[in-house]
Design a protein that fits this description.
With about 190 residues, this protein is mainly α. Helix content is about 65%, strand content about 0%. It has seven helices and no strands. The protein has helices at about 20-50, 55-80, 85-90, 95-125, 140-145, 145-165, 185-190. Helix 2 runs parallel beside helix 6 and helix 4 (about 95-125) runs antiparallel to helix 6. The longest helix is centred in the middle third of the chain and has 32 residues, at about 95-125. The radius of gyration is 21 Å and the shape is elongated.
Length: about 190
């Protein structure tokens, strides 16, 4: 039986829980939808304005796609170690120093995520008292992804902390049988 498709790179697998892989895939799809929706609505807005027939609600939809795409993307990038992460500094370190830097980095990220949850929720609640024009949709619809993104970023930071403390933060070497990696040419000694 073949394993399910995963977006997680094998060199990062030691920091990930497999049960969160479907969530990452769903978030990546939502990011794609937000990006496609943003691009299409901007194009539609430019065309209708060029024709002298602007459609006012298109800007609201464009803004919504943009905001949701940003905050969903923040959560995905956190899980993939592509955002808010100083990898060059940590990769140059080993042992307890690396453990300390990686832990500190993720604790700062966790703190920022909890601020997103707390203050994002406050903005969300307050957003029911202000409205977008021309649709009169509450601003809360724009603020909703902030605390949700914060919760996901916090979950992914905890995931990486726990797995990093268990398995180490450094990626396993290429060709390590435990990771299923392919041996590199030097290890094969084939004269390359």
């Amino acid at each position: 039986m073949q394993p399910a498709y995963s977006l997680v790179l094998e060199r990062q697998r030691h920091l990930k829980w497999r049960w969160l892989d479907p969530l990452e895939q769903a978030l990546m799809v939502l990011c794609g939808i937000a990006l496609a929706g943003f691009s299409c609505t901007v194009f539609f807005d430019v065309v209708t304005r060029s024709l002298g027939r602007p459609v006012l609600w298109v800007q609201e939809v464009t803004t919504t796609f943009f905001v949701y795409g940003i905050f969903i993307g923040t959560a995905v990038a956190t899980r993939r170690n592509d955002h808010l992460y100083l990898s060059a500094i940590a990769d140059a370190m080993t042992g307890r120093t690396r453990l300390g830097v990686e832990t500190f980095s993720r604790l700062v990220l966790l703190g920022a995520a909890l601020c997103m949850v707390w203050f994002g929720f406050i903005n969300f609640i307050e957003g029911f008292h202000a409205f977008r024009m021309p649709s009169l949709t509450p601003l809360a619809t724009l603020y909703a992804p902030i605390p949700l993104s914060g919760a996901l970023v916090a979950l992914f930071a905890v995931e990486q902390l726990v797995n990093g403390w268990r398995n180490g933060f450094a990626a396993p070497p290429e060709g390590d049988p435990a990771t299923g990696g392919e041996p590199v040419a030097e290890e094969l000694d084939v004269g390359l």
